[in-house]
Amino acid sequence: MKLKKYIGIVLLMLVSLPSFAKDDLKALYDSLDYSVAHKDMYVQEKIKRIDDIRSALSYANLNDVNKYVVYNQLYNEYWKFDLDSAIHYARLEVEAANRMNDEYRQTQAELQLAVSYAMHGMYLQAEQILSKHSLETLPTDLRAEYYNAHIQFLQYYLYTSDSPEDIRLQSNYRDSLYATQDQSSMEYRLSLVDRMPESERLAGYTRLQDLVEKFSPLYARITYNIAAIHVNNGNNNEGKKFYIRSALSDLYNCTRENQSAYELARLAYSEGDYTRAYRYAQSSFEDAITAGIQFRVTQVSGFYSMITDIYQRREASDKQSLINIIVLSGILLICLIAAVYFIFQQLKKIMRIRKDLADSNDELQRLNETLNDMNAQLHSSNSLLQENNDIKEQYIGQFFNICSGYIDKIGDYQNVLYRLAVNKHYDELVKKLRSTTLIDSETEALYHHFDTIFLNLFPTFVADLNALLREEERIVLKQDTLLNKELRIYALLRLGITDSEKIANFLRCSTSTIYNYRTKMRNRAIDKDTFEDQFIGK
Questions:
Q1: pLDDT, tens only, 437-460
Q2: Nearest-5° Cα angle at 300, 208 to 197
Q3: What count of Cα atoms within 13 Å lies in the side-chain half-sphere of residue 185?
């Protein structure tokens, strides 16, 4: 309910905008479109209100007078909302009045029933009820309702008959209604304006518009009449504004005889706005079908069928056009992507060439700057090369001497073993063969030669290694000791021998031992993750 009130306030602000406002018509159309899309909200509020009224019928002590009142309230709620239900409660009014033997209420209910029958297309039943009553027996204060019932019957019936006699009869009933109406009522004032000359009606309706409550059913009728006058005078935009106000009022009150929406649909169709024409015609047709308002269904159905066919064909055409646009856009997008990719590749190539040229210039500059340094260093390098050649000759000579000495020792050892074998000193021969003294001594001699040669090549080896170890973990060699086993491992690594198996063979131990030594040494380093890379790279 709060939401409905809130939207009602917004709509009230919109319909109250001054007619000269630049965006007045657009704002009104937006409001109407929103209300059409959400008209179920108003319907739910209407149904809730009806249920609240109907709940009174459950009271145990309800008499026929009270029931008649409730039936009348329900009839008024269902009027132009659901004619089947309106007819149902009008019949219940008649039955309650009969039980009360109340002729006044019975006549009043039957007139309501006759009007509902006529609106529902049940003209025969409506005519039977109306012909049942005569002015001679009719209470004076029901004569206005009697004339009004005849007027509405003829109004609905004239959609199926254009008899001049019926038209003249309707005009006579209007004159009679005018003569019997309460002159203080708004209905009388409206009838008075209806009888004015055409040139004065617009001003008369405008004055009445300011006197009635916004969004009331009477407000919808008045604004509809104002709109019709503007359209007849060729002022379609002003007519649309008042048709929209009238349509908004009908939606707000759940009045499903929404003639204004139908007129807006026709105006939109005449201007080629088929989407809006279809939307309003569909809303008007659905409301008429739901409410059971037969004359309105007859009126709208032909136009709705036509505009539906046009709308569907245009929608199919628009859909095909959209598909074509999407396909064309896709092709253009692919071409654009390809072009952008090609341009990007060319730009990358140009940038790469520029970078290469810049790098080449920088490189040439650096080469020019270092050329003199290289020439200066060339003489020094030649001197160092000569020195290295002398070192290589020296150590290669020592290598040959060691190898030659080993061959002589092997020969002497072989002769000793041969003599022992020839002289059949087998026990001593076996003892010699089992002894590791020679091997151990030669191994020690080999390591001593290796240590001596290596330290001659790398005299700062031990200091360099210790510089990478934590102070408390640095290696301190025993007196007269050149290198120990763990130092020999790193000496071999320093010479470029990184294969653990080769190192193990040279040092006469297992590869796991080599791994353990290297792991322990790394753990003693200042930075164990980069220790070996730093040392080997020196």
A1: 777 777 888 888 888 888 888 888
A2: 30
A3: 11
Structure tokens at 2: 């709060």
The model carries a pTM of 0.58
C-beta of residue 517 within 8 angstroms of C-beta of residue 489: yes
The residues, ordered by sequence, that sit 6+ positions from 12 with a Cβ below 8 Å of its Cβ are: 214, 215
CA pair distance 359, 365, nearest whole angstrom: 10
Domain ranges of the chain: 311-431, 436-536
CA distance 264 to 246: 10
Are the C-beta atoms of residues 110 and 145 closer than 8 Å to each other?
Answer: no
Q: Positive or negative, the Cα torsion across 225, 227, 229, 231? A: negative
Per-residue confidence (pLDDT) for residue 496, from 0 to 100: 79
What percentage of the chain's residues is helix, strand, coil (to nearest 5)?
80, 0, 20
Q: At 387, is the pLDDT very low, low, confident or very high (cuts 50, 70, 90)?
A: very low
68 has a pLDDT exceeding 70:
yes
The Cα–Cα gap between 261 and 278 comes to 11
Determine the Cα–Cα distance for residues 286 and 505; give it in Å rounded to an integer. 101
Structure tokens belonging to residue 280: 């309003």
φ/ψ of 76, rounded to 5, equals -65, -35
Residues 42, 4: Cα–Cα separation, whole Å = 7
The single residue listed with the structure tokens 């997008």 is 333
Beta strands in 43-147 (DSSP E): none
Return d(Cα 46, Cα 215) in angstroms, integer: 15
- pLDDT level of residue 538 (50, 70, 90 thresholds): low
Q: What is the pLDDT of residue 375?
A: 60
3-state secondary structure 153-218: HHHHHCCCCCCHHHHHHHHHHHHHHHHHCCCCCHHHHHHHHHCCCHHHHHHHHHHHHCCCCCCCHH
Could you give phi then psi for residue 20, rounded to 5 degrees?
A: -90, 0
| Residues 204-241: b if buried by 16+ CB within 10 A, e if exposed | bbeebbeebebbebbbbbbbbbbbbbbbeeeeeebbbb
Residues 483/491, Cβ–Cβ less than 8 Å: yes
The H or E element spanning position 70 is helix 64-78
Cα(117)–Cα(128) distance, integer angstroms:
10
CA distance 523 to 517: 10
